[in-house]
């Protein structure tokens, strides 16, 4: 029963502490009274009896303290007392406390936000069955001069051979993205939906249980099988109001009826949330296309067999791939297969920016710690006498350090709590405004993140508090008592410590500023990079003609031409044209080609070019210059379609130093190679602002080939381009009321979308860097003002003895700028390292860009100078008489 | 009268437990009782008595209760708990082992 007693005791000591304290006092008083009584009984006079008793009793406070030290919760009581002292000490200098708390709140808040995002996006395991057993298998071309990341998409025939002829993986599944016009059984409001084709085993490989219904069967995963479709949860809710009776019913995709067989769970938004529905993989191909080894559009995910490593399993696939490569020597068939974790594929675009941002906030937090540390050293110096007196009166070093640490902890805890509040808002804002951030829906604050912030609070308290606390309670503590009041200049070692802290702070700031400058310049470069065509007042609208109704070349051409004619007549339209993919809107499509006059010895990835189709008016509409030859005319239409216009890059690459006009290029469209005559050369356009120019071929859109059934109408407007979007959609509806349009975007919006991540990371890093610069300036100003205040007597004497004020100014300035210069050099070295780390996300900007370097160094110097000049001026204005009288 | 001997370390607990095992006592009485029984050889100072009493109470070996003293004043009386009785036995045993051992050294050989 002892534990019960002890528990009762613990409760009593916790909740009845006041009563216990009173009780202890009574107990001791009783003892004292007994002693007095005994002394009187011995014959002493009452006053003397009392005096003797007190003498025997000793120091009652010490006795009380010792008795209490045995009480439970004593340590907590001490801690609370330290907190009370700390709070009192902080309220005595509210300016310092407020600065430190705000600094810490910003640092901890930003770090928590970034950690939340990094954890959700990069670290959390994917919500699939045994996600560590899943890998992506990609093709890999050994010739990497064509750019890219070395993870090429897989062709359907390669995938089929992998699946049937290798045994290293438990299962392999594939998917590809696809687009459909979606309508109901009775032609309700048509819309264009992004879809995906998934192999029948995809969902079982991932380990996904459907919300309702079933997945595809192997029989359904055939080119001409019955049409079945799986809905994603969002489409199910949005379009079908979550009505389960849709199961088994028909919907129309590209006017063909599909039976709904299942609904995916709500959380399944992979590979990206834009995908609205899934159809069987093979059904998105014609039988011929399914057998192509050189048309790459699929991604392959595989589940590892127990006991077989990804390397071993991929080696087998790779060996097979090499045989396929040899068997198709003249075609674009990769030599190798490579694997990578699924998460790497999903986050490939944001991984580096996220890590850079996390490093940036880490840097900022460190600067914040150094800053608070610096401010604390200053306070420590001001409280030297107080600490010395307390040390002399018996305060142990541990007690004094603990008390100062409590003060720092208090700052960090209050700052941290504010920071977490900030971070809740900040994280939500970031997740909502960062376009294309994968897995954004999984981002939220949870226990791990809170634990992380708590750890951060203690870590920052330790970082910021320990050094000042140790230095201010060091062995020299009593020297403060010996110093005469007229002593000049503070302790040298403490000044060194502060300068070292400042140097670190400046160095980190320089690193941050350099990285921020580089990212920002790279972003500006992206935003201002020349697409190669008119970008102002240009609207693009996409549409795709369903194969079923538009089954002849004539029908397709007739639609395109009448739409163009109607749009060109609209008021406010300066020019209009058709193109399959607008400039800046991505790679989308390419073709491998050979030049009959320059036969290549073997296949090379270099021999491909972007595939585009355009109408005669497109180049004028986007003001793409004609360099040689002529644009398409009404001659190049319908069956007279074997003419192409090429870009300048194409001409330079395939006909260096020659006139390409009239030359032939051999391109395989379906299965047999055909010759196309080059009739014109136009200026280059970029398919992605972040990528170098790629050779491009334009085929006549008015040929009416099936490839031209999906087009983008580009319109150069006289005024606001978006104002034209509704009139143009009305024209489309007038021609075909069941035809939906999609991606209604201005050219600038397209560019903005593709630079969203860069824009985000650049803006944030610049914000962090500016904040850090401000912190460094505050630190510098604080240190210098303090040093001047310390040396006021010395400076007074100097001036009294005839020192020039300019000399004093120089003296103080030099003192302040010394750590700045040291920090600058350290920071430049660190900045060079950081720059090579972020090289991969810099576009058209050298890691050692001289403009950025000079601007940022200038920024630091100017800020430092401003921070130093004020205290220096104050020092030079010291009146000697006043200064000497001050103490 | 020579200087009162310092208590052998750790024996104060034993003395207190033994003293309160007879009947509930207040602090003053405990000190007096030890002093009397040992013929003034052992004098327990307040400075060690009260911290020790509070420590034993926190450990759950003795229990405190306010009661009326001989002089009619309220005083805090300590009494042994069941756990305290077991502890007393243990302390007694370890004391007898220790004193036997010391005796062997001092008187033997």
What is the topological layout?
The complex is a heterodimer of chains A (887) and B (109).
Chain A: H1 2-15, H2 17-41, H3 46-57, H4 60-69, H5 74-92, H6 94-123, E1 134-140, H7 156-165, E2 169-183, E3 191-198, H8 202-206, E4 212-213, E5 228-231, H9 233-240, E6 250-253, E7 256-263, E8 275-280, H10 287-290, E9 299-304, H11 310-327, E10 336-341, H12 342-346, H13 351-382, H14 384-392, H15 397-433, H16 447-472, H17 479-482, H18 492-528, E11 538-544, H19 553-569, E12 573-579, E13 590-594, E14 608-614, H20 618-621, E15 626-629, E16 643-647, H21 648-654, E17 664-668, E18 673-682, E19 696-700, E20 710-717, H22 725-735, E21 741-746, H23 747-754, H24 756-790, H25 792-800, H26 805-837, H27 850-876, H28 880-885
Parallel strand pairs in A: 3-8, 5-7, 14-19, 16-18
Antiparallel strand pairs in A: 1-9, 1-10, 2-3, 2-6, 2-9, 4-7, 5-8, 6-7, 11-20, 11-21, 12-20, 13-14, 13-17, 15-18, 16-19, 17-18
Helix pairs in contact in A: 2-3, 2-4, 5-15, 6-13, 6-15, 6-16, 7-11, 13-16, 13-18, 13-24, 15-16, 18-24, 18-26, 18-27, 19-22, 24-27, 26-27
Chain B: H1 11-22, E1 25-26, H2 27-37, H3 46-59, E2 62-68, E3 74-80, H4 82-107
Please tell me about this protein's structure.
Chain A has 887 residues and is of the alpha+beta class. Chain A is built from 28 helices and 21 strands. In chain A, the strands form three sheets. In chain A, strands 2-3-8-5-7-6 form a six-stranded mixed β-barrel. A six-stranded mixed β-barrel of chain A has the order 13-14-19-16-18-17. In chain A, strands 12-20-11-21 form a four-stranded antiparallel beta sheet. The radius of gyration of chain A is 38 Å and the shape is elongated. Residues 484-490 of chain A have low confidence and may be disordered. In chain B, strand 2 and strand 3 (74-80) form a beta hairpin. Chain B has helices at residues 11-22, 27-37, 46-59, 82-107; strands spanning 25-26, 62-68, 74-80. Chain B has four helices and three strands. Chain B has a three-stranded antiparallel beta sheet. The longest helix of chain B has 26 residues, at 82-107. In chain B, helix 1 packs across helix 4. Chain B has 109 residues and is an alpha+beta fold. Residues 1-5 of chain B have low confidence and may be disordered. Chain B is 58% helix and 15% strand. The A-B interface holds A 1-3, 5-6, 9, 13, 23-24, 26-28, 30-31, 33-35, 37, 56-58, 62-63, 66-72 and B 26-28, 45-47, 50-51, 53-55, 57-60, 63, 66, 69, 71, 73-76, 81-83.
